[in-house]
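Our consortium's second objective concerns turning raw sequence data into structural hypotheses that experimental partners can test. To show how far this objective has progressed, the report includes one record in full. It was chosen at random from the queue rather than selected for favorable results. The single chain below, 207 residues long, was entered without modification.
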Amino acid sequence: MYRVIEYLRLLERKCHIAIKKIRLTNTAPTIIASNCVGTLIYSDLKLPFYSPTINLWLEMNDFVRFAEKLEWYLEQPLREIRDDAISYPIGMLGDIKLHFRHYDSWEQAVRKWKTRSERIDLNNLFFIGCEKDGCSYETIKRFDNMPYKNKVILTKTAYPEFSSAFHIRGFEEQEEMGNLIAFRKKFLLRRYMDDFDYVAFLNGRLF
């Protein structure tokens, strides 16, 4: 019986993702994300990675600076930095630090960064931040003031004063946003980030 239930849960999840793919009309978005949320969206929707911010993360203040001067930062060379306490590659892009968390080597990280940077469509940009990794109220305010139409910051607390803030429930008692790509403890297989309709977002609808 347990196996049957698990099979049905997985089948429903596949149908849920299939419907998302059918709904998507913008099939080549450049998602600039502060962490792996963007990577997961591309993977769910079976899209090529039209962004260099794949399999890496940035502290939120670095992310906002990066987004504010995106074209300038994309022209800067990557420089490797060493940290014996960290097992994955780390690089500096100008004055911001990139944590290439899911790369095996510095050479792989640089190669993928360059390849995916060439795919960026500056006329089809979508920015996704999270209330974690050093994100303060002032960081959210600065993110909200960025001159981009398509931007969202996923937050652990509701901020009605910011049009770009979207509250993800379940982390209110924590110091920062938890793991958005984890599944909620419910019958239907839904990640925390599934609370946000990212397909509608990519299709250009305001939330």
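The partners drew two points from this record. The CA atoms of residues 37 and 181 lie 7 Å apart. The helical segments are 2-23, 37-44, 60-68, 70-74, 106-117, 137-144, 198-202. Both points have been shared with the crystallography group to help prioritize constructs.
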